[in-house]
Amino acid sequence: MASSSSSPLLSRQEKQGLGWMEWLKGWSYLIYEVLFQKITARHLQNPLPLPSLESVTCIVTGSTSGIGLEMARQLAESGAHVVMAVRNPTAAHDLIQEWQNDRSKTCLLSIEVMELNLLSLDSVVRFSKAWNSRLKPLHVLINNAGIFSIGQPQNFSKDGYEEHIQVNHLAPALLSILLLPSLLRGSPSRIVNVNSSMHFVGSVDVDDMNFVSGKNKFTSLKGYSSSKLAQIMFSSILQKCLPIEAGISVVCVSPGSVRTNVARDLPKIVQVAYHVIPIFLFIAQEGSRSALFAATDPQILEYCMALKADEWPVCAYISHSCRPMNASTEAHKIQTAHKVWEKTLDMIGLPSDAMEKILEGKEVQCKYEAH
Ligand SMILES: NC(=O)c1ccc[n+]([C@@H]2O[C@H](COP(=O)([O-])OP(=O)(O)OC[C@H]3O[C@@H](n4cnc5c(N)ncnc54)[C@H](OP(=O)(O)O)[C@@H]3O)[C@@H](O)[C@H]2O)c1
């Protein structure tokens, strides 16, 4: 497990966690989003019409269920070559068969399956090496796979990290950095992170991202919301440090509140309620629109570059209604974001100059690579 050093560089204001006002504002926004998302997104068609994506290659993590499944299918149906990066390859092959059966035999979808288990950083390294070795361009990486183990006790991966932080933040961060050579080949290219409005009620303690010091009592809600906030902070520094010439945009999106398997760990009684009150919830196809928009809309690239030119502290964030939105006040704490960047690189076993080295075409060794 990574050690916890203190962070003297943080100002007193940055050291303070989420204040009561911010916490209340966060919950108010979440309630507003759930109650009104169908109204605020009523201008959108469902499914979201996509441009022709011939000669575009997309990797979608966690595409065997929910929002990821919808994205993989729609991207492939629009002509993209889709790589389903999943922990259950059999389920992915079954899905492809099903989608293909629904179409005429002459219209073959271009989809492949590659194994990726985000609970193992070694699996992330193996996946990235296998993909990069093809020397092919990658145009879109969608970090979609995620967990919210509601009400579950604190669990750790075999790498020693709390599972929410590993699956929702650390593993996607490692994947994004290691796939930079392929994203450069596909430039202009994009990294789309399926984030969550739950980040509004999260805070990140850079000295205790694993919730092990005893200072912050772990709950699944804290684990989930802080992992999503850490993802925004890391993405913001990544976008800031990537040179404009690299042509790689980094976007976080909120899918809205969506009826998927994400609620699989809810107690039975709450689960019934969750599925009985669908009037407010998006179906997965509706929930996939913000990420598909971020992955395919031509204006996103301009938008990301404008934020970068303005030195805006947070990376582009797209709401469930496919509109740019402002991430939480916590996400704007730039010093904390820099610490999250440094700490994350340390936790995922990369040197602090990993990104620069990769952009120069140099090899970078990850501590978690199995020999
Ligand atoms: N649903 C919502 O209301 C909501 C709201 C905000 C944000 N989100 C975010 O949306 C994203 C997609 O979630 P969803 O709602 O579509 O949930 P979902 O139906 O549970 O899908 C999650 C996907 O992630 C995969 N996954 C989980 N752990 C993994 C691991 N260790 N390695 C590789 N893949 C793994 C799952 O694979 P298996 O099929 O093998 O389990 C599944 O394909 C997540 O990042 C979630 O945080 C969802």
UniProtKB/TrEMBL annotation:
Keywords: Oxidoreductase. It comes from the Eukaryota. InterPro entries: NAD(P)-bd_dom_sf, SDR_fam. Gene3D superfamilies: NAD(P)-binding Rossmann-like Domain. GO terms for molecular function: oxidoreductase activity. The keyword Kinase does not apply. Belongs to the short-chain dehydrogenases/reductases (SDR) family. This is Uncharacterized protein.
